[in-house]
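lol so apparently i was supposed to do this last week
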Amino acid sequence: MQLKSTDRVTIAGLPGTGKTTLARYLAALCEPRVLIYDPLAQYDGFKDENRYIPKSDSLTEFDSVCRQLRMRGNVTFIVEEAERYLGQGKPLGENAFDLINRGRNWGVGIFAVTRRVQRLSKDFFDLCQHCFLFRCGLKSREYIADMIGWEDTRKIMSLQLYHFLHFNVETEESSVYVLKLGMQQRVVEGEAKEAHLGGRATKVDIKQ
Ligand SMILES: Nc1ncnc2c1ncn2[C@@H]1O[C@H](COP(=O)(O)OP(=O)(O)OP(=O)(O)O)[C@@H](O)[C@H]1O
Ligand SMILES: [Mg+2]
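anyway here it is w/ magnesium ion bound
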């Protein structure tokens, strides 16, 4: 799996399936050029300059952070609770819109983390290069199938806890992975290479 720090990425799944754990892991890979929009203050261990805890749910506050990122460039923006800020039917601020549509030009990637992918802005979702999909609820399946097709959506329905399907939108390739927490030293080199995630994600074969 080849993920670029300037890509647009969706990380979705039911509560407690492992989205934030994966996002933390990807954030660490992007350090120091990362900013985490962290409304639930979950990203302990990251430097203050790499996380932003918003004072409110306000879209104006979100847009002002997008404006700063646009000026700064070369940063991966990880947005937790993304459906609040990049929500379907919610007006996107001018800077958020620009970041989604032209962020690549400034070296800005956006990784959206959501437990309600069906409420995520279609404008954002449609432009994603990668989806990381954990077990998803019934309500989200049609939305996901629209993007990745029913064959892969059915695989998501049978995923084990903490396992996720990675779907590359450009190549239409998919694989299932699981992060092996605290077992870095036991991941053999071959597996690490296969995952291209720095040695801590392991590819899993699932029976169809
Ligand atoms: N790969 C994993 N292996 C073992 N435990 C995991 C793994 N991924 C997550 N967990 C554990 O599961 C719990 C929930 O994980 P996490 O907070 O990442 O889920 P989430 O999808 O972000 O949940 P929420 O929707 O509530 O934000 C945590 O205690 C975490 O340590
Ligand atoms: Mg979470």
